[in-house]
Amino acid sequence: MYWLLALMTFSLLGVIALGIYFEINPLSQSANAPRWLKSTVAINLFTFVIAQLGLLLLGVQEVMAEPTVAQPIRDISVGMGLAMIGIGIPTALASIGAGIAVGPVGAASLAVIAEKPDVFGRTLVYLGLAEGIAIYGLVVSILLLGKLG
């Protein structure tokens, strides 16, 4: 099983190495791709897909062969479930609010940067303030989660 994971890891590292190579030495628009490029990408993709399928088939058999371990079931009451939903609400509402705020601020920032590139730093501050709304909601949820236990 580990050899399949190693094969997939080497395949992904090959894709990353190829990306870095072409980032350093990009192809010109008029030049045709080298002959080895298509075959390398095809072999890498084929290796990755075969390793994925092998991992899926062999992994399912290995998981099915594992003996079941009895774990204690932890009961969650209705009150605890409602408390957990309530803890998630600040993050959800803050994320929605941040999304609503970032849209117009980002559009206005791009319009201003197109006319005056020197105000780029100030527009980032406004975008950061709009994004901060979501972080505040996350902090409130984490504080509430700490009070739950």
Protein model, in words:
- This protein is mainly α and 149 residues long.
- The protein has two domains: 2-65; 90-148, F1FO ATP Synthase, CATH 1.20.20.
- It contains four helices and no strands.
- α1 (2-24) runs antiparallel to α2.
- It is flat.
**What form results from the Cα inertia axes?**
flat
Task: Return residue spans where pLDDT drops below 50 for at least 5 consecutive residues.
Answer: none
Class by alpha and beta content = mainly alpha
Average residue-wise pLDDT: 82
Total separate domains? 2
Q: Span from first to last CA?
A: 39 Å
Quote the beta fraction.
under 5%
Q: So how many helices?
A: 4
Largest sheet: none
Number of strands: 0
Helices and strands, in order, run as HHHH
Radius of gyration: 25 Å
Entry keywords:
mainly alpha, 2 domains, F1FO ATP Synthase, single chain, 149 residues
Would you kindly provide a brief summary of this structure?
The protein has 149 residues and is mainly alpha-helical. Helix content is 81%, strand content 0%.
What topology does this entry show?
Layout: H1 2-24, H2 35-65, H3 78-115, H4 120-148
Helix pairs in contact: 1-2, 3-4
